[in-house]
Amino acid sequence: MKSNADQIVVQGFGDEWSRFDQSSLSQAELTEIFDSYFAVFPWHELPPGAVGFDLGCGSGRWAKLVAPRVGNLHCIDASAEALSVAKRNLSSHQNCQFHCASVDSIPLEDASADFGYSLGVLHHVPDTQSGIKACAAKLKPGAPFLLYLYYAFDNKPWWYKLVWQLSEGGRFLVSRLPHSLRYAVSQVIALTVYLPLARLALLAEKLKLNPNNFPLSAYRHRSFYVMRTDALDRFGTQLEQRFSRREITQMMQNAGLDNIVFSDRPAYWCAVGYKR
């Protein structure tokens, strides 16, 4: 069976998390971003000592805040390099177990997990639908699964998508550079594009204007460290897919997830569904 992982992408994220291990991210900002992703996650429904998984744990930044709330957390990533960063960041959490595996070889028993989540990962695998099904298979009936996939700008005006399409040419070129050059160019983009546009959106907000349709407005309250990280993430990754809310709903339902609820706040789209 062909692996549902692109090894070039896996290597790229190993490089990213080694460069940006999130040690420079303040606890306050980490918590704020975490809360935006987990806004629809039903913490109150988890059983005592819940056992779950973080699929594509990367640096372990989300696991750092999930682990204290649960009994056992399986941190899974296809990159051994990224996993070593996660182990270091989570060294104080004795309830974390680490697995170097892709989404099509999750080392857990089917129907064994009380919850699961995968944030910003499954749009970077060749078959996103198959990836969601693989995650859902590990859940107990009724268990929640939190999913974040890049959105297809289906809640934005037409010109917003046009701006993104223009940036796609840049991503195509930058993502094919050697790691060191890819990193350098992404940092220039962070400084000359992300930072000015994000601060322009912040200024608009302070002037009582609606900043939501400003390009990169989601970064208006973010630190430059986050922008630098995400610029490398965005422009350094060869494989990127985007989905509408309707498409995500259909994929989750096809994977056996029901009662799907979408978050109404960035990042889009973030949704939780329950194993049928």
Tell me the overall shape. globular
Proportion in β-strands: 5-15%
> Would you tell me the overall average pLDDT?
97
- Counting helices, strands and paired strands, the structural category is alpha/beta
Which sequence of strands runs across the widest sheet?
Answer: 3-2-1-4-5-7-6
- Major beta sheet, specifics? 7 strands, mixed
Please summarize what this structure is.
Helices cover 42% and strands 14% of the residues.
Would you mind describing this structure in some detail?
By secondary structure, this protein is an alpha/beta fold. The chain has nine helices and seven strands. The protein has helices at residues 7-19, 27-37, 63-66, 80-89, 128-137, 158-174, 179-206, 224-235, 245-254, and strands spanning 51-55, 72-77, 96-100, 115-119, 144-148, 257-262, 270-275. The chain has a seven-stranded mixed sheet. A hairpin with a 7-residue loop joins strand 6 and strand 7. It is globular, with a radius of gyration of 18 Å.
Describe the secondary structure blueprint for this structure.
Blueprint lengths: L6 H13 L7 H11 L13 E5 L7 H4 L5 E6 L2 H10 L6 E5 L14 E5 L8 H10 L6 E5 L9 H17 L4 H28 L17 H12 L9 H10 L2 E6 L7 E6 L1
Parallel strand pairs: 1-2, 1-4, 2-3, 4-5
Antiparallel strand pairs: 5-7, 6-7
